Amino acid sequence: MVQTTSKTPAKETLLTPRFYTTDFEEMSTLDISNNEEEFEAILEEFRVDYNRQHFIRDEEFDASWNQLDQETRSLFIEFLERSCTAEFSGFLLYKELSRRLKHKSPVIAECFLLMSRDEARHAGFLNKAMSDFNLSLDLGFLTKNRTYTFFSPKFIFYATYLSEKIGYWRYITIYRHLEQYPEHRIYPIFKFFENWCQDENRHGDFFAALLKSKPEFLNTLEAKLWCRFFLLSVFATMYLNDFQRSTFYESIGLDARQYDIQVIRKTNESASRVFPVALNVDHPNFFKILDECACQNKNLINIASDSQGAKLIRQLPLYAGLGFNLVKLYFLKPLDTKSTWGTIK
């Protein structure tokens, strides 16, 4: 029997999956009376637990994966680690929210509890996949040693809604591609993505309902500015991360840039049904500027890893250029979703 080694967690950066905490007292005062029926319907969906029997490994996982070349293997393990960390982060947050809200908002508390069940199932399945490569994440170590970022409930709603929806589109896009080109399915976990992404979709619908229960989170000028900020943050983070990992996407027959463009378009369209604004991703400069950002970020990483001195001095112009490009993207005129949703492709 091959021994499994505990993997050293990846170094935390602005682009790595984060662990969150929030103002639990403010969360406990949430009033859902204006759409309580929607929450009851969502809760019933969670209780059904459509994927209860889905995450069961079959004999295909018993194969040897030594045929993967070293670079593909390394990038795939990184994909599993990042995905596992993100899912486990969701589990911790949802579990704590369910515990804190149990006696104050039982419907919301049970929704969080059942979402934490889903996220734990996802994280466990991903961590088990890592064991096929003789590695595992020490999730207990991560719980105690990861830096927790504080977000107010409003920001948790924006960020997590988008995280769940973009997760849906990432998973389903990969699944549909590999369904069409099974020769690129380098590992059996991808077969599980169709049902898996439906968990992400249901979670996103729950956070959409939370946002709609607080009209000031959607109907004010401040809300529009924050929606733009979180849309851009989520899209840019994915784009910059995937630009660094284009070889992994090539190994499963995808062009990383075209994959990201499709996921961004679909997520932007989904968000437009909830958010008061959407980003104008059809603007001729939108993806051109994102490409510049990705190149600047890659150059920053290269400088950080080389052996030459004066790293900060060499990095400063790149940081300035990257920041300026992100500001330009933020100030591209957005789409008013109330009047222009039908024009979003």
Structure characterization notes:
Its cofactor is Fe cation. This protein folds into 2 domains: 203 residues, no CATH class; 116 residues, no CATH class. 64% of the residues lie in helices and 5% in strands. The radius of gyration is 20 Å and the shape is globular. 33% of the residues are buried.
Secondary-structure element order, N to C: EEHHHHEHEHHHHHEHHEH
Radius of gyration: 20 Å
Poorly predicted runs of 5 or more residues = 339-345
Helix-residue proportion: 55-70%
- Beta-strand portion reads under 5%
Please give the order of strands in the largest beta sheet. 1-3
The overall average pLDDT, rounded, is 91
Give a count of the beta strands, DSSP E runs of length 2 or more: 6
The general outline is: globular
Count of the separate structural domains: 2
Structural class: mainly alpha
| Spatial separation of the terminal alpha carbons | 52 Å
Q: Helix count, per DSSP?
A: 13
Largest beta-sheet characterization: 2 strands, parallel
Protein name: Probable magnesium-protoporphyrin IX monomethyl ester [oxidative] cyclase
Family: Belongs to the AcsF family.
Pathway: Porphyrin-containing compound metabolism; chlorophyll biosynthesis
Organism: Erythrotrichia carnea
